[in-house]
Amino acid sequence: MYQYIGIDISKPTLDVYDGQKSYKFSNDTKGFKAIKNLQTSAKELCLIFEPTGIYYHDLVHFCHQHNIKAALVRLL
Predict the structure, then answer these.
(1) Which of 8, 20, 39, 47 is buried deepest, with most CB atoms within 10 A?
(2) 20 lies in which domain range?
(3) How many CA atoms does the CB half-sphere of 33 hold within 13 Å?
(4) In CATH, what number is assigned to the domain containing residue 36?
(5) pLDDT of residue 11
(6) DSSP character for 41?
(7) What is the pTM of this model?
(8) Average pLDDT over residues 9-26
(9) How far is residue 22's CA from residue 30's CA, in Å, rounded to a whole number?
(10) How many domains does the chain have?
(11) Contact 46, 70 (CB under 8 A)
(12) Reading across the β-sheet that carries 13-17, which strands appear in turn?
C-alpha cells in the first residue's frame, strides 16, 4: 500500500499535501528530507508532482537515491 503525497514545485519552495495537512518546504535537500519524514512506517512513499521547468530535477534525483517512487504528471 502506498502513501501518496502531492507536491507543487516552484524555484524556492515545495507546497506539499499529504491528504490531511498542507506543508511548505524549501526546494532543496533539507526540504526533501522533511517530505521523506512524513512517511508513515506501514506504507511505501509515492510522491506525485508536475515536472515544472528545471525545478523538479533535484527532487527526482533525491527520490532515485532513496528508493522513493515518484509519479510525474504532465497536464496538457
Answers:
(1) 47
(2) 2-72
(3) 3
(4) 3.30.420.40
(5) 95
(6) T
(7) 0.91
(8) 96
(9) 17
(10) 1
(11) yes
(12) 22-26, 13-17, 2-9, 44-49, 69-72
